[in-house]
Amino acid sequence: MFKTITRCASKFVAIAAVSLLAMNVHAADPIRIGSFLSVTGPASFLGDPELKTLQMYVEKINEEGGVLGRQLELVHYDDAGNASKARNFASRLIRSDRVDIIVGGSTTGATMAAVPMVEQARIPFISLAGAVVITTPVKEWVFKTPQSDYMAAVRILNDMKAQGLSKVGLISGTGGFGSSGREQTLKAVKEIGGIEVVGDETYSGSDTDMTAQLTNLRNVKGVDTILNFGFGQGPAIVTRNYDQLGIELPFYQSHGVASDGFLELAGDSAEGLRLPASPLLVPESLPESDPQKPVVGAYKSEYEERWNAKVSTFGAYAYDGLMLAVAAIEKAGTTDKAAVREALESIQGHVGVTGTFNMSADDHNGLQADSFRILEVRDGSWKLIN
C-alpha cells in the first residue's frame, strides 16, 4: 500500500513538473506582431518609414522588458504596394505565422484587400492607411490610425472658408487614395455649406504632366482656390506645373503629401501651399501645454537619431498603431484576440503622434478633424498656421 501511494505521488509530481515547464515555456513565447507594408515600389515613401518605426520600437519595448513580461516579435512582409500581394501576406500572417495582432497596410488598396480575411479569422487589425472606407462603416476587427480623408477635406474646406474662399477647383489622382479623397471632398462640400466645387479634374498615376487639367481649372469662371487630393509623385508634378503656369490662386494639398520628402520633390514650387497634417512636422511650434508635444518630440528625435533621416507622418501612423496595440494588450492582460479587440475599442485619451485617440464601438479611428493642424510652406519649410 505504501509503495502504491509513493508511486502515485511521484507520478503526480512528475505531471506537475511537466505542466509547470509547459506553462513557463508558454509564458516565454513572444507576442507576435504581424505586418504587411509597402516598403518598396511606388508607395515606399509610406512603407519604408513605417517599417523602420515598427522595428525600432519593438526593439525598444523589448529592451524595457516587453509586454506582459513577454518579448515582442515583428513578422513583416513587403507588399510593394500591390493589393494581391497584401492579401496573400495577410493570409500567411494569420494562417502560417499565427500572429496575435496585425499592424500594417500602408495603402487603402492593400488594407481593403486584407479586410475580408481579418474579419473571417477574427484577428485585431490596425491599418496605417487613410481612406474613410476602412472604418466606415465600422468593421468589428478593423481599426486605423490616420485621420480619414473626409476629416482632411473638412479641415481644408473650413480653412478655405476662413480665408474667404468659396469656389474650389478640385484635381485628384485616380488611385484609391485620390478617388476616395475626391468623393469625400464632394461630400464634405455639401455638408459644410457656403462653398462649392466649380471644377473637377483627375490624373492617373502614370501621368507626367498635369498642365492641361490645371489650365482647365484656372479658366473656370469664379474659381478662387485649387485643391489637389493625391499621394506619391502626382502631387509634386501638379505643384511644379502649378508654378510653371503662374497660377496665383491659393493652393491646397491633402495630408497625403505631408512629409519633408514632398518638399524635396516639389522644390521652390511648393512655396505658399497649405495642407492639413500632424504636428510632427512642426513640433517646436507646439505650446508647452499641448499634450502631444512630448510624444511628438520624442518620436521625432528618436527616429532621426536612429535612422539618420527626417521623420515623416507616415512613420508616425505606425508608431501610433504599435502603441495602440501594446496598450490594448496590456489593458486586456492577455493576447486573447477577442479581449484585445474589446480593449482596443474602449481606449480613451490615448495621446499619440497623430492625435489623441478616443475609440468606441461606433468609431474605430478615434480621431476628429481638429487633430489635423494647418501647415503652410514658407521659405522651403513647414510653418504652423493653426
UniProtKB/TrEMBL annotation:
<dbReference type="InterPro" id="IPR000709">
    <property type="entry name" value="Leu_Ile_Val-bd"/>
</dbReference>
<protein>
    <submittedName>
        <fullName>ABC transporter substrate-binding protein</fullName>
    </submittedName>
</protein>
<dbReference type="GO" id="GO:0006865">
    <property type="term" value="P:amino acid transport"/>
</dbReference>
<keyword id="KW-0813">Transport</keyword>
<feature type="signal peptide">
    <location>
        <begin position="1"/>
        <end position="27"/>
    </location>
</feature>
<dbReference type="Pfam" id="PF13458">
    <property type="entry name" value="Peripla_BP_6"/>
</dbReference>
<dbReference type="InterPro" id="IPR051010">
    <property type="entry name" value="BCAA_transport"/>
</dbReference>
<comment type="similarity">
    <text>Belongs to the leucine-binding protein family.</text>
</comment>
<feature type="domain" description="Leucine-binding protein">
    <location>
        <begin position="30"/>
        <end position="379"/>
    </location>
</feature>
<dbReference type="InterPro" id="IPR028081">
    <property type="entry name" value="Leu-bd"/>
</dbReference>
<keyword id="KW-0732">Signal</keyword>
<keyword id="KW-0029">Amino-acid transport</keyword>
<dbReference type="InterPro" id="IPR028082">
    <property type="entry name" value="Peripla_BP_I"/>
</dbReference>
